Amino acid sequence: NIHTWDLANMGNGIHLQSLALGKIEAQNREESLELELQYKVTSLDGLLSSGTMMVEYMPIPDDFELSEAYPNPFNPTTTVRYALPVDGNMTLSVYDLQGHQLTELSNGFTSAGYYQAVWDASQYSSGMYFIRMNVYGSGNTLQFNKFQKIMLVK
Asked: Of 49, 71, 113, 139, which residue is most buried, by most CB within 10 angstroms?
């Protein structure tokens, strides 16, 4: 929708810090989109500015998520999707049945958003493994912790 406001008729003494000119509703939950916006700014004296600008839309989830790995069972790779509603330090790791950490798929500060990681298990034998996601907030407090089982079948 395109909206036009006549600011000249709003009265004297109006000081605008910002003005929202529209609303974009996106149905895409997990992928960023690049949007092209066209704009035109006019005054009583005529055109002040016009053009096109690119804006990146980054969806932010409502909750922490660790989606089921796909495919599962898998051979030799599986994809794990996860989401963070807030920025935080996180780890996404793979463990064997004995609880030994085999690899980290992600580790460090991560901005809020949707992500995915791929585990290539070609160097490991068939069997059950675990994926663990931990997210830490300020003061290194645990905000989210979830495990899931995955099965490597060769």
From this structure: 113
